[in-house]
C-alpha cells in the first residue's frame, strides 16, 4: 500500500558568520557556477515542491533579504535569527512561521549548495514511511570526515545520536558516516524537541544535531538517508568553495555531453548554472560561459572564447578568441572570428565579422560582411548610440563607424573610411584622404641625406 505523501516546508539556515571565508560578503552569497550558494539551495527546495521556503538570516544580512525578495517575491519567507547561537537556535527562529505546521519540515543549510531535489524528496519520504519515525538524517560516507559531525548508529540501523567532532571521543572520531546537516523532522514534534535543546557542548551552541538524541529519548525512531559526499559537501572556506565549483562544473559538463554536445577537453570548459547547449554543438578547449547563454544545435565554438548573455543560432561558428558580451544575438550560419568583440549586437543570418573588430550596439543585416579591424564608435563619453548595417553591405577593412549611423542595404564602404553620415542603399562611400603620389621623391630624399 502506498503511503500518502505529506506536504513539506524547507527551512534554509544561512545566518552563520562564515568567518572561515574571510570575506565581507555573507558566506552563502558566494557564487558557484555564477549563482549564490543560497539561491542554489532555494531553487532546489522550490523544485522539490516545498509549500513554503523559509530562509533564516542574521540581523545584518539586510542585503541578502532584499536579494531574496527581488528574486522570489512572496515565494520565499525571511526570518531573522537575532544572535547566532547555533543551528538548533536558527531553526527555532522560524517558529513564528511554522508553529502550527503539521507537515514535514526539511532543514537545509545555505552552505551545502549541491543538494539535489530527489534527495530532499527521499528525506520527506522516510518520515512518511512510518508513524514512529519523527526524524530523518541525511548522511554520507566521507573519506575525509574532518570537521563533519559523526552519526552514531544503533543495532537496528537507526540513528541514535549525532556527535560533533569537537565533542567526539577518539573512537567516535573514527566513524566515517557523517552528518550532511540536512534533517527532516515532523512538524508536530519539531518545536517540542527544539525547546529541550541545551548548549552544554564544546562550542556552547544549541546544536540542531541534538534533536536526534532527544527524539530517541521520547520514543521516536530516527531514519537515515545516505547520499554521495560530493552532493552534500559543506562550504566553509575558499578552498571548499573551489572544490564545490569543480563538482558543480563536472555535473554541467556531463549534462551538456549527455544532451549531445561534444566537449573536446571538458575540464577546460566552464559553464554557468543556466547555460543552454543544443545538440551536435562542438566546444573546443578553454571556453568560458557567463550567465544567460543559449546555444542552438550544430554550433561550433573554437578555443579561448568568453560568451555571456547571448543567443547563438544554428550553424554558427564562433572564435577562436572571441569575446561576446550581453545582449548579443548571432543569427543562423553567421561567423564571428578571432579577436572580435560583440556587445549588444545582433548579427542576422549569414553575417560575417571575422577579424579584429568591435561591434557595439549594432545591427548587422543578413549576409553583410564586416572587414578586418572595423570598429563601431558607439560611445561619445555620455551616451551609447546605434549602428545599423544593411543586408548584404560590405564594410571595408579598418572602417570606423561613428554612431549613430546607418549603412544601407548592399552599400560598400571603402577600406579605412571614417563614416559619420548615413550611406544610402547600394552606394559606395569613401571617407578618407585621397592618395597623392610624388614620383622619385624618395630617391631625391635619400640623396639629400
Ligand atoms: C554542521 C553540523 C555538522 C555537519 C555539518 C555539515 C551542527 C551543530 N553541526 O556543522 O554535524 O556535519 O554542518 O556541513 O549542526 N547557521 C545559522 N545560525 C547559527 C549557526 C549556523 O543559521 O547560529 C547556519 C550557517 O549559516 C550554515 C549552517 O547553519 O549555513 C551550518 O552552520 P555551520 O556553522 O557551518 O555548521 P558546521 O560547523 O559546518
Ligand atoms: Ca558548514
Q: Could you please describe the fold and organization of this structure?
A:
The chain is of the alpha/beta class. It folds into two domains: 8-232, Spore Coat Polysaccharide Biosynthesis Protein SpsA, Chain A, CATH 3.90.550.10; 259-429, UDP N-Acetylglucosamine Acyltransferase, domain 1 (3 Solenoid). The protein has eleven helices and 38 strands. The strands form seven sheets. The protein has a ten-stranded parallel β-sheet with strand order 12-15-18-21-24-27-30-33-36-38, with helices on one face. It has an eight-stranded parallel β-sheet with strand order 14-17-20-23-26-29-32-35, with no helix packed on it. A hairpin with a 2-residue loop joins strand 2 and strand 3 (35-36). It is elongated and about 105 Å long.
Helices and strands, with pairings:
Elements: E1 8-13, E2 31-32, E3 35-36, H1 37-47, E4 52-57, H2 62-72, E5 76-80, H3 87-92, H4 95-98, E6 104-109, H5 117-129, E7 133-141, E8 150-153, E9 159-163, H6 170-173, E10 177-186, H7 187-194, H8 211-217, E11 221-226, H9 229-232, H10 238-258, E12 262-263, E13 269-270, E14 276-277, E15 282-283, E16 287-289, E17 294-295, E18 300-301, E19 305-307, E20 310-312, E21 317-318, E22 322-324, E23 328-330, E24 335-338, E25 340-343, E26 346-347, E27 352-355, E28 358-360, E29 362-364, E30 369-370, E31 375-377, E32 387-389, E33 394-395, E34 400-402, E35 405-407, E36 412-413, E37 418-419, E38 428-429, H11 441-448
Bound molecules: uridine-diphosphate-N-acetylglucosamine (UD1) and calcium ion.
Residues 111, 234, 236 line the site of calcium ion (CA).
Amino acid at each position: 500500500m502506498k503511503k500518502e505523501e505529506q506536504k513539506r516546508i524547507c527551512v534554509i539556515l544561512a545566518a552563520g558568520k562564515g568567518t572561515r571565508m574571510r570575506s565581507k560578503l555573507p558566506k552563502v552569497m558566494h557564487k558557484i557556477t555564477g549563482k549564490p550558494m543560497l539561491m542554489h539551495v532555494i531553487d532546489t527546495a522550490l523544485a522539490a515542491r516545498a509549500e513554503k521556503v523559509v530562509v533564516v538570516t542574521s540581523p545584518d544580512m539586510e542585503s541578502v533579504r532584499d536579494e531574496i525578495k527581488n528574486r522570489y517575491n512572496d515565494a520565499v519567507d525571511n526570518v531573522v535569527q537575532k544572535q547566532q547561537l547555533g543551528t538548533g537556535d536558527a531553526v527555532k527562529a522560524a517558529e513564528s512561521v511554522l508553529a502550527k505546521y503539521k507537515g514535514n519540515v526539511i532543514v537545509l543549510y545555505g552552505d551545502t549548495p549541491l543538494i539535489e531535489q530527489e534527495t530532499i524528496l527521499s528525506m520527506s519520504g522516510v518520515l512518511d514511511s512510518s508513524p514512529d519515525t519523527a526524524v530523518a538524517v541525511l548522511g554520507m560516507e566521507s573519506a575525509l570526515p574532518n570537521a563533519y559531525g559523526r552519526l552514531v548508529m544503533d543495532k537496528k540501523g537507526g540513528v541514535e545520536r549525532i556527535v560533533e567532532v569537537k565533542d567526539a571521543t577518539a573512537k567516535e572520531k573514527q566513524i566515517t558516516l557523517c552528518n550532511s546537516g540536512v534533517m527532516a523532522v515532523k512538524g508536530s514534534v519539531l518545536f517540542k524537541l527544539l525547546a529541550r535543546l541545551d548548549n552544554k557542548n564544546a562550542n556552547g551552541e544549541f546544536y540542531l544535531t541534538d534533536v536526534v538524541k532527544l527524539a530517541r529519548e521520547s520514543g521516536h525512531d530516527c531514519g537515515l538517508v545516505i547520499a554521495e559526499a560530493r552532493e552534500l559537501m559543506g562550504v566553509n572556506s575558499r578552498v571548499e568553495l573551489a572544490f564545490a565549483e569543480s563538482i558543480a562544473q563536472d555535473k554541467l559538463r556531463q549534462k551538456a555531453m549527455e544532451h549531445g554536445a561534444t566537449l573536446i577537453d571538458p575540464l577546460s570548459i566552464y559553464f554557468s548554472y543556466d547555460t543552454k547547449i543544443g545538440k551536435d554543438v562542438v566546444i573546443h578547449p578553454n571556453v568560458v560561459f557567463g550567465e544567460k547563454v543559449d546555444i542552438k544545435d550544430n554550433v561550433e565554438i573554437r578555443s579561448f572564447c568568453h560568451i555571456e548573455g547571448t543567443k547563438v543560432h544554428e550553424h554558427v561558428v564562433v572564435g577562436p578568441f572571441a569575446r561576446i558580451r550581453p545582449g548579443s544575438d548571432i543569427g543562423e550560419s553567421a561567423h564571428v572570428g578571432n579577436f572580435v568583440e560583440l556587445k549588444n549586437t545582433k548579427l542576422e543570418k549569414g553575417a560575417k565579422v571575422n577579424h579584429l573588430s568591435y561591434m557595439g550596439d549594432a545591427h548587422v543585416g543578413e549576409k553583410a560582411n564586416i572587414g578586418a579591424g572595423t570598429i563601431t564608435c558607439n560611445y561619445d563619453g555620455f551616451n551609447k548610440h546605434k549602428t545599423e548595417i544593411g543586408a548584404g553591405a560590405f564594410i571595408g577593412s579598418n572602417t570606423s563607424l561613428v554612431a549613430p549611423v546607418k549603412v544601407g542595404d548592399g552599400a560598400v564602404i571603402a577600406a579605412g573610411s571614417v563614416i559619420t553620415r548615413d550611406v544610402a542603399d547600394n552606394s559606395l562611400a569613401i571617407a578618407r584622404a585621397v592618395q597623392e603620389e610624388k614620383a622619385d621623391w624618395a630617391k631625391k630624399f635619400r640623396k639629400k641625406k
